[in-house]
Amino acid sequence: MLASMGGGSQAQLKRRNRMALLRQLRVQPGQSRVDLAEALGLTKSTVSALARELLDEGWLVEREVIATGDLGRRPTPLFIDPTRLLLLGAQVGIGHVRVVLTSLTGEVLASRNAGYDTTQQVNACIRVLTRTLLAVAARCGEAQRIIGIGMGLPGGVDQAGEQLVFAPHLDWHHLPFGDLLRAALRSTPLAGVSIFMQNDADVAALGESEFTPSPLADPLLLVLVGEGVGAGLVVGGRLLTGARGFAGEVGHMVLQIDGPRCSCGRRGCAEALIGGRALLQTGEAQDAPAVARAGHYLGVLLQNLAAAYDPACIVLAGPATAFGEALLAPVRETLQDYARAAGLPEPALRVSRFDADVIAVGAAALAGYRLTQPALPA
Fold it and tell me: Which of 12, 66, 117, 250 pairs as cysteine with 231 (C-beta 3.0–4.6 A)?
């Protein structure tokens, strides 16, 4: 029972219970106070007090009463409020940034793109990112408040130390990205807003998990195919980041012995066979054999990941999905061939519903996730 967890102060216990209530409603919206008390192992009076606070603060909203046919007061369903508290999500790409303003439930309310010069130092990116964040935040209404900023970064991220450890395509090493952005936002309307950051594929996976929650999609594996290839895995509502934040660097799994040389120096990596040079520079699907070949190797990669993690759902995302069936058909065919040979069902596969916003929306989801993830008991 959450109310009886030991360790920590009463304030910490209350925060855990508040966040657990929010996350329960994210997964199962429309539950009543009685439903929540039963699901979370809390007393009805505790849930009522927490719900009142969360309603007053803008996290929750009450909606129409459900007719049950019973005598007496009918239970009132509670939902995450999509109107008052908002999130900013930003994709830091290679030479561009994309920023979105979303509700707590993932509706995109505003967005903006901007470019920066990759030949300059990281401060050039920070300046453009700051301007874009402020421009999108200005779309916030008077009765609305931004409570978190999420960042999807193109490389390994030390989340605890808020460092971008390595961005291979930008040659950035050990950058205190969080501190740099906070300094840039000082004396602006976004000063003091909580900032969170993670690898771009990881946040994209969180966006699919947090903003389209389903028990039928757990574990959820997202594979992001752009200039590079990365993956994010969400299990039981928690993001798997690894001991150093480098989990999901699947672009450097070797798929072909003595294959084409990769940017990392090895041969036959997934990135060299599927990513930018192999696929995205073929033009508007003019080189159909190259797209089909990349689709085959993507299917091999997905098969390997499915064998390792047994996901309930695999989501494909990133610029490569614009090739449509020219890419997806050989992916499915390869997965079907492997499944048929093993006498197993093929993994469930779909394309992200967020299209070009997948990383920015996922970054907003990261902010919501970190703000509402119950702290582990001491």
Answer: 250
